[in-house]
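hiii so um. not sure if this is the right channel but i have a protein structure encoded as tokens and i wanna go backwards to a sequence. like what aa goes where. can anyone help
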């Protein structure tokens, strides 16, 4: 009796949103249910933000930056305004620096909560998703009471921040930080400690250390592969050198560790926020900056540690009110290449889990 063999076929996943975390399309080559190759197809959300920046003044472009990684708006703005401040050799008031760090670390926690929630939902875990979003709402409430916006606060300015935080901000922040350890125990008990979740994620989607380094992977995906690298420590910006915090590193190199590392980083962000809350000085929140900003002719590259990985801003000034060139290095765009390298041999249901562990936001990929 002759048994017919199987034939490899291609399956389109995306660019609809479910399980692809944005308008992301991949062509999945399958042998039965086993993935043999994945071809990422990006560009469906392309908005040309770099060229938009070159047709707007330095100040006008600030609201656009929040919409790169729209789940962690403050980080994008921080990198951009600091790059302009480098061009201008501008010193930012102490209180503004502390407020920037507070908003950046709150944004990091909010982003990681969405990642954990999405990873759970992708393996049919509804309950952890609701817990994470419950707590993320409290961060968005803090953004809203200060800036009026939730996901995209548009709070940072060239020279500082737009205005000081309201009085009710501080008790709300303290309450959130007090509740966070107990909340993290809930996340672990419901999701990370769940035997079904562990079976779906442990030893799945291995990204070896050497491969991660060769692909220039950054952020939590790199640290989950055993590389202790964080821009906040390697090349401290703002006032990060004043805070005591660790760089969590895991060595499993798998989908589980990439999820778990986000939980560990939330713990470190809490440490930074408690120190900032304790040490923030009084004083102005904005430097004396001309309303018409014209940095001197020159060029600068500035990088920050975003929740999705290293973000770099390259600006070229010709001495006018608009930048001559803007180029953005986003962590998600570089990290997307790891998908096709680590997926071969896994089944199609594993593909969804592995993709979730990369924590991609298409606003960064298709900038």
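sure thing!! here u go:
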């Amino acid at each position: 009796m002759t048994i017919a063999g199987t034939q490899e076929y291609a399956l389109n996943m995306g660019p609809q949103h479910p399980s692809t975390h944005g308008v992301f399309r991949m062509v999945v080559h399958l042998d039965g249910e086993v993935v043999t190759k994945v071809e990422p197809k990006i560009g469906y959300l392309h908005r040309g933000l770099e060229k938009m920046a070159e047709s707007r003044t330095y100040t006008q472009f600030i609201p656009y930056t929040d919409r790169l990684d729209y789940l962690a708006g403050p980080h994008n703005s921080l990198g951009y305004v600091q790059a302009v401040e480098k061009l201008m050799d501008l010193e930012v008031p102490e209180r503004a620096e502390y407020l920037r760090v507070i908003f950046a670390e709150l944004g990091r926690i909010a982003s990681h909560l969405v990642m954990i929630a999405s990873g759970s939902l992708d393996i049919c875990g509804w309950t952890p998703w609701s817990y994470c979003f419950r707590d993320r709402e409290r961060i968005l409430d803090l953004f809203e009471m200060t800036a009026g916006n939730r996901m995209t606060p548009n709070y940072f300015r060239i020279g500082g921040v737009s205005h000081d935080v309201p009085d009710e901000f501080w008790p709300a922040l303290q309450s959130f930080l007090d509740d966070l350890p107990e909340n993290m125990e809930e996340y672990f008990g419901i999701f990370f400690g769940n035997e079904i979740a562990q079976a779906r994620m442990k030893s799945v989607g291995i990204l070896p250390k050497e491969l991660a380094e060769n692909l220039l992977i950054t952020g939590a995906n790199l640290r989950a592969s055993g590389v202790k690298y964080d821009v906040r420590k390697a090349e401290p910006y703002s006032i990060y050198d004043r805070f005591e915090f660790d760089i969590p590193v895991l060595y499993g190199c798998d989908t589980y560790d990439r999820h778990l590392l986000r939980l560990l980083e939330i713990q470190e962000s809490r440490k930074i926020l408690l120190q900032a809350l304790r040490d923030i000085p009084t004083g102005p929140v904005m430097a004396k900056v001309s309303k018409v900003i014209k940095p001197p002719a020159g060029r600068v590259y500035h990088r920050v540690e975003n929740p999705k990985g290293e973000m770099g801003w390259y600006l070229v000034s010709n001495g006018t009110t608009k930048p001559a060139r803007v180029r953005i290095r986003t962590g998600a765009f570089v990290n997307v290449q790891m998908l096709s390298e680590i997926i071969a041999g896994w089944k199609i249901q594993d593909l969804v889990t592995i993709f979730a562990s990369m924590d991609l936001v298409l606003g960064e990929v298709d900038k």
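oh and The chain has a mean pLDDT of 93.
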